[in-house]
From TrEMBL:
The keyword Nuclease does not apply. This is Transporter. It holds the Pfam family SNF. Keywords: Membrane, Symport, Transmembrane, Transmembrane helix, Transport.
Length: 452
């Protein structure tokens, strides 16, 4: 079926191009901003081991399923799920899974772009030496000043959204593929440079010990669920991005082998980020469990006092920007693809419409940090509400539905046709996607709802 129904949007030129694009979608702020701080909060090595196990048992099977659904449907996530539901002769309301993924990606990009704008602002702060000689109070004040300024945040949010939409507007091979062919190798090169510097920091061994020496006495049920949730979210599952990228995958490419490469690269980036960050934290006697402020409030303090801090501060925030951009272009792609398929407009107009709408919601997110900070829904400002709604509710539900559809609704013959796995390999995947992954994601879902 896949070879007979090519995507109307085009295809990746090669398996390698798809790997770069899907890895770019997966690699983002979650790897470089979130993974180090949640590792610090949950005791280090033992948490990392649980996280790696969850990637293998939950993340990889669901990613295989999502890519498979995308390639079989060959359309935007909404139209793909409607087509596959008809093919499997099941309830057509499975199409709502595509809607949920597309909307989740759109909502995530609205606040993701704002955070990416912070990274762009910090590139220039590092470049002009703003971190040099600062103390903790000054670094905190620097971040607070940015949060209090809607003009600064809107400016950087606008620049980032404009760059994102320029890439997406150019299409599969002219935009997405060309961008990731440059950005992903550059991201890895910068990470390796930062790791090399961390090795010379004097606290490299301490950082490595913290990251890879497990102390299981520090693992709690909450830490296990956090690791499970992060393994799922860091692979960009349940938001339509991997499904729509899968729809551009040539029919002859092995989905399973490709997924292992993507998950491996994504995990490597998270681990390399930890290897680069924790030695710097220990070398500067900083707190590993500081939380979300680790990147924007703690590391600038380290960069401001270490040898070569100017250069490595610039490199680090360029890295953060690259990671954000490779994810952002995948977050908006499902909406653009759907507009092209259903509203009879060209790709440029679809990008303008979707990009403008997302930018407008992002402006509201900016205001939630300052002029609208007193406006709360369920005791959350707009940024917190969107983050909670997407990461804690929509994505787990989307992942659960993907696992259920691929494991229980889709005809086994169709799944075997797409995956082309040896019998034992297919049976192993089927067991994980039918039983292990849904149960694990359901536990995460109950946890975020406060039931567990």
């Amino acid at each position: 079926m896949t070879d007979k129904t090519p995507s109307i949007h085009g295809e990746w030129s090669s398996r390698f191009a798809f790997i770069l694009a899907a890895t770019g979608s997966a690699v983002g702020l979650g790897n470089i901003w979130k993974f180090p701080y949640i590792t610090g909060q949950n005791g280090g090595g033992a948490f990392v081991m649980v996280y790696l196990l969850c990637v293998a048992a939950i993340g990889i099977p669901i990613m295989i399923a999502e890519i498979m659904l995308g390639r079989r449907g060959r359309q935007s996530p909404i139209n793909t799920m409607q087509t596959l539901a008809a093919e499997a002769q099941v309830d057509p309301r499975w199409g709502y899974l595509g809607w949920m993924g597309m909307i989740a990606g759109f909502l995530i990009l609205a606040y993701y772009s704002v955070i990416a704008g912070w990274s762009m602002a910090y590139i220039f702060k590092a470049f002009f030496g703003s971190f040099f000689g600062t103390d903790g109070a000054e670094v905190k004040q620097m971040f607070d000043n940015l949060m209090a300024s809607p003009i600064q945040q809107i400016f950087w949010h606008t620049v980032f959204m404009a760059i994102t939409m320029q890439v997406v507007m150019r299409g599969i091979k002219g935009g997405l593929e060309k961008a990731v062919r440059f950005l992903m190798p550059a991201l890895f090169v910068i990470l390796i440079i930062l790791v090399a510097y961390a090795m010379a920091s004097g606290s490299y061994a301490q950082g490595i010990h913290f990251l890879f020496s497990p102390d299981f006495s520090k693992i709690t049920a909450d830490a296990v669920l956090t690791a499970m949730g992060h393994a799922f979210f860091t692979l960009s599952l349940g938001m339509g991005a991997i499904m729509v990228y899968g729809s551009y995958l040539p029919g002859h490419v092995s989905i399973a082998k490709t997924t292992f490469f993507i998950a491996g690269a994504d995990t490597a980036v998270a681990l390399l980020a930890g290897i680069a960050i924790f030695p710097l934290v220990f070398a500067n006697n900083l707190e590993v469990a500081v939380g979300p402020g680790l990147i924007f409030q703690t590391l600038p303090l380290a960069f401001g006092h270490m040898s070569g801090g100017w250069l490595f501060g610039v490199l680090f925030f360029v890295l953060l920007f690259f990671a954000a951009l490779t994810s952002s272009i995948s977050l908006i792609e499902p909406a653009v693809a759907w507009l092209v398929e259903n509203k009879n407009i060209d790709r440029q107009k679809a990008c303008v419409w979707s990009g403008t709408a997302c930018w407008g919601l992002g402006v509201a997110v900016v205001f939630s940090f300052n002029v609208w900070s007193g406006f709360k829904i369920f005791d959350k400002n707009l940024f917190e509400l969107l983050d909670y709604l997407t990461a804690n509710l929509m994505l787990p539900l989307g992942g659960l539905c993907i696992a259920v559809f691929a494991g229980w609704m889709m005809k086994q013959a169709h799944a075997e046709q797409e995956l082309e796995l040896p019998a034992q390999g297919f049976q192993a995947w089927q067991f994980l996607i039918k039983y292990v992954a849904p149960a694990a994601v359901f536990l995460v879902f109950l946890h975020v709802l406060g039931v567990l």
